[in-house]
Amino acid sequence: MSPIVASVARASTLDDVPGVARVLSRSLHDDPLFRWLFPEEELRMAKVRRFFALAAGFGYVPAGDTRVAETAEGVGAAPVTRAAALWAQPTNNPEGPLVSLRTWPHWGALIGRARLAAFVRIFAEWKMASPQEPHLYLAALGVDPSAEGTGVAGGLLTAGLDEADSRGLPVFTQTLNDKSVGFYEHFGFRCVHEVPHQDVGTSYFLLRPAS
Question: Which string of b and e fits 94-125 if b means at least 16 CB within 10 Å?
Answer without folding.
Answer: bbeeebeeebeeebeebbeeebbebbeebeee
